[in-house]
Specification:
Blueprint (H helix, E strand, L loop, with lengths): L19 H17 L2 H10 L3 H19 L15
Length: 85
């Protein structure tokens, strides 16, 4: 009668660290989010294309998100997974 396999959550092992590839895969999302935040600059991007101001802003965003990512302060880039049991 008990032919249905049952897996208990307490029996599963939880990983202690997120893989580097997992952490790096989330970084471009936050670069894009940070890059499009200033609406006037985003409007200019779509109106007239990429220019020096946008390159400077992209550099600032990449630096800031890179530092935050190395410190584990971006969602998806944290060193340990957020798993609540």
């Amino acid at each position: 009668m008990n032919d249905i396999p049952v897996e208990l959550a307490s029996a599963r092992k939880i990983r202690e660290r997120n893989k580097i590839s997992y952490r790096l895969a989330h970084w471009p999302i936050w670069i894009w989010v940070g890059f499009i935040i200033p609406a006037p600059l985003t409007f200019d991007l779509f109106e007239s294309g990429f220019d020096g101001r946008m390159a400077a802003w992209l550099g600032v965003v990449m630096l800031a998100t890179g530092v935050a990512g190395l410190r584990g302060r971006l969602p998806g880039v944290e060193p340990r997974p957020y798993i609540i049991r």
